[in-house]
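Q: What structure does this chain adopt?
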Amino acid sequence: MRVLITGESLPELDTAATVAAKRGAQVRRLPDVEAALRSLRDGQGADLLLIDVREDVRALVERLAAERFHLPIVAYGINAEPRLAAAAIKAGAREFLPLPPDPELIAALLETVSPSSRELVSEDPRMLQVLRLAQQFAPSDACVLVTGESGTGKEMVARFLHERSRRPRGPFVALNCAAIPDNLLESELFGHEKGAFTGAVARRVGKFEEATGGTLLLDEVSEMEPRLQAKLLRAIQEREIDRVGGSRPVRVDIRLIATSNRDLEKAVAEGSFREDLLFRLSVLTLHLPPLRERPRDIEALGRHFARRLAAANGLPTRELSRAALDRLLQHGWRGNVRELENCVHRALILATGPRIEADDITLPQARPAAGASAAPTVAALVGRTVADVERTLIIDTLRHTLGNRTHAANLLGISIRTLRNKLRQYSGEGVMVPPPSLAELGA
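A:
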């Protein structure tokens, strides 16, 4: 957990930094927001930014977004007026930290925003075998390809590898290749020089340089377009990258992990993914089985989510009854662990008794079995255009995934870019589109 604190040196702020460091955070201090921005551009990444509540929070949020820095902001203040704290949160700060600091409050804050705070829970033999293999792979610097359906926990396994590698104190930098437009992805990966393109207002270090000494995770690497695949292949082979607009190569020292929820061999056969890049990425491979094939994990994760989400939301602790667990075991979990977590979260909110019962669990209606009559469904569609039916299906799927676009695209069998284009079109037509999930907004 990398914490960046800006502002003048004050005893109360020094105490907060000391408490955070004792809780395991790597703390850096800088005098002001401008120094913080320069530090981020130079590749000295952070997972949390603390700024004085008197700063212009909204302007900082906008500047970070313009330069595509995604990290939560926490405003702090000494005996600050409540209206200032409320204004900072309204402007985009995640939380307000009153000073002098309460050690337990700082611990809770770090737990809330930490990208690695979620525990990897498993009791199923199939998943435990994957983790044993990951334990063997961890000390090597060879590339690892982690495959599996969306929501199976590929990023958590990548963090598991990093934490047990020979470079656990180095940065863990993750980049979702599917979430960034093609024209910006090259700059995100390799960085750029000032003036390299419109909007390049300052020199910016890319994820390869930011991850030097640690691990770089390329999430959903299959969504990368072929031209960038060639540059990625060269970076892996030569251990050097070229910034956009740069005049000389830059050496990097990283351990690369890639993930994909698609069949990359099929993508190679279709010509959308380079075979030589697949060979480079898959020196070591891990395949995560879907949750429906890990029944013991359904129970273990269900109990884990019930406890964790109750504590996180200030709800009474309620165990899952045997009937509730049996209901979970009967479901297909097309959304895997993410869907299970959402389901348990809803059940906690709906439950009124001392335990979560089967009736508290709401699940989507199962798809009809193969060969079942489709007459009622067809009858309901007659008279509607294909475009209208497609729009309804996409919007309903997005509501089902609680706004998680990556999950929705996977369920629909389309790429995340296609989904984004469709949603942009629908918004332009005046259709109400569900907002992105908190997870995809960097919560």
